Amino acid sequence: MSLSESAHPARWWHPLDDGRIQCDLCPRDCKLHEGQRGACFVRKMEADKMVLTTYGRSSGFCVDPIEKKPLNHFYPGSSVLSFGTAGCNLACKFCQNWDISKSKDMDRLMESASPEKIARVAQELGCKSVAFTYNDPVIFAEYALDTVEACHALGIRTVAVTAGYIHREPMIEFYAGMDAANIDLKGFTNDFYVKYCAGQLQPILDTLIYLKRHTDTWFELTTLVIPTLNDSEAEISALTEWVGKELGPDVPLHFTAFHPDWKMKDIPATPPATLSRARDIALGAGLHYVYTGNVHDAEGGTTFCPNCHAPLVVRDWYEIPAYHLTADGHCPKCGTAIAGRYESYGRPFGARRIPVAMAEWP
């Protein structure tokens, strides 16, 4: 048997004694018969091997501000070429990108681009980085890592926007290539992950500890705050205290607003006051950089010096009306080093969103 033209050899799997194969990429450990796809939908057993069915194909490309990932401490004001594929290895009932992450319609992957072309287009568009986003890049890791290699050859940074649901062996290689990541910490109880995400909490915590202790990857955290499900003071306190203890006070934490979508249209949108309360709890727990998102909150979007509390990067949605950091990322008032990745600040990209049609590029 031979592989279909659309299939790309996948990694991180092993054969089983009963003729099936097991995917070793993430904690779901899918065991597949010939022709069967994993829970992510994009990894498949074909010709007795594991293949990735979305390699080189995308649901779309777009140039975004880096703050939209969200990353507030990774070259603020810069632009990033963003793209995703289809599918996901979690099944969050509140997914805000469900049309992509839950899609089993491969026809929506209308754009095609090699890793080398993605890197070249990003360079020509003046993007500081390329982001693997919209759906979880863990499930298209082979495509992402080949793109990392092509980007780094041209001096382009790479960013993973992910839930962090991955086994240790592929995790080591995956994050070795990533210059930055935003990890979606969806809640802080295993019950929440089981009931609303069809996953487990501990693998995500393991990923975060690994990132902090064993990599140079810059990473920030995002928690989508959902009324009545993960917004209690006790859970927010437990989450922020764990972050402070295990990851340290300099890891930025974003609390973002939920809006009714996918299978949770009966739950109301998150009130801005709930996000402000979560931010206050996190700051009270000693975290230095805490943000609110998906709401208009200038204070909650601004980076303050943790020492003298001067506003250093003022944000209004994705606009930056004031920037006061030194070129090497220090507070000009008191000299405190601000955690993150910085360089000389130029003209910010702003709040634009520019779709990119790859077919129009040679």
Defining key terms:
TIM Barrel; 2 domains; alpha/beta; 362 residues; 20 strands; 9 helices
* CATH superfamily descriptor of the largest domain: Aldolase class I
Strand order of the largest sheet: 16-15-14-13-12-11-9-8-20
Main beta sheet: strand number and arrangement? Answer: 9 strands, mixed
Category by helix and strand content: alpha/beta
The top level CATH class name of the largest domain: Alpha Beta
Task: Report the strand count.
Answer: 20
CATH topology name of the largest domain, in short, is TIM Barrel
Number of helices: 9
Topology as H/E string?
A: EEEEEEEEEHEHEHEHEHHEHEHEHEEEE
Low-confidence stretches: none
Radius of gyration: 20 Å
Proper CATH architecture of the largest domain: Alpha-Beta Barrel
Shape, per Cα inertia axes? globular
Count structural domains: 2
Strand % is 15-25%
Distance between the termini: 34 Å
Describe this structure in words.
By secondary structure, the protein is an alpha/beta fold. The chain has 2 domains: 8-52, no CATH class; 57-286 and 337-356, TIM Barrel, CATH 3.20.20.70. It contains 9 helices and 20 strands. The strands form 5 sheets. It has a 9-stranded mixed beta sheet.
Describe, in short, the structure shown.
The chain has 362 residues and is an alpha/beta fold.
Describe the secondary-structure layout.
Elements: E1 8-9, E2 13-15, E3 21-23, E4 31-32, E5 43-46, E6 49-52, E7 57-58, E8 60-65, E9 79-84, H1 98-101, E10 111-112, H2 115-124, E11 129-132, H3 141-153, E12 157-162, H4 168-176, E13 180-184, H5 190-197, H6 202-214, E14 218-225, H7 233-247, E15 253-257, H8 272-284, E16 290-293, H9 298-301, E17 303-304, E18 311-316, E19 319-323, E20 354-356
Parallel strand pairs: 9-11, 11-12, 12-13, 13-14, 14-15, 15-16
Antiparallel strand pairs: 1-6, 2-3, 3-4, 5-6, 7-10, 8-9, 8-20, 17-18, 18-19
Helix pairs in contact: 2-3, 7-8
